[in-house]
Write a structure and sequence with these properties.
By secondary structure, the protein is an all-alpha fold. The protein folds into two domains: 3-69; 86-151. Helix content is 58%, strand content 0%. The protein has helices at 3-14, 18-27, 34-41, 54-69, 86-96, 101-110, 117-124, 137-151. Helix 1 packs parallel to helix 8, helix 4 (54-69) runs parallel beside helix 5 (86-96) and helix 6 packs across helix 8.
Length: 154
């Protein structure tokens, strides 16, 4: 999945307007204008389409965390990763939406994907641990579809 696809799916699932998207970026201390957001959301075949870099997606996800959970006073700002993978994105979405393991499994159930608690735990582990497992695109895609089904049913 591309970063642009992830941003589009989150925007659709929560029905964010352009103004709300700009506000979410702003919560992570990143200033973005409407045209930049719009170009990230355009179809790939559009000549104004721009790739969304990992750093900007990380800033958006951090802003989503701040929007939903608030900034903690006295704590340093969340790290802004320059290289994202599906595991980091999954962790940030889990934090932003205050999801438990059972909540995530329920989201997968909404799209008929069976994931065990042990399998999910492996995605959320530190990469240096032997039980760590890479989160493939299909899992992240289905999680985003599950979020969409929950928050904006078809």
């Amino acid at each position: 999945m591309t970063n642009n696809d992830i941003l589009k799916k989150l925007r659709y699932a929560f029905d964010f307007s352009d103004s709300e998207m700009i506000e979410i970026f702003g919560l992570a201390d990143y200033t973005v204008d409407r045209s930049k957001v719009s170009n990230w959301l355009k179809p790939e075949d559009n000549e104004e389409y721009n790739n969304l870099p990992d750093k900007q997606l990380a800033l958006f996800l951090n802003g989503l965390i701040y929007k939903n959970r608030g900034k903690q006073e006295g704590r340093p700002p969340m790290p802004v990763e320059t290289n994202l993978d599906n595991n980091i994105i999954l962790k940030k979405i889990k934090i932003a939406l205050s999801l438990t393991t059972d909540d995530i499994i329920d989201l997968f159930d909404l799209v008929d994907l069976e994931v065990s608690p042990h399998e999910l735990s492996a995605f959320l582990r530190n990469p240096k641990q032997p039980q760590f497992r890479k989160c493939k695109d299909q899992y992240l895609r289905n999680l985003l579809y599950g979020i969409q089904e929950k928050h904006r049913p078809s």
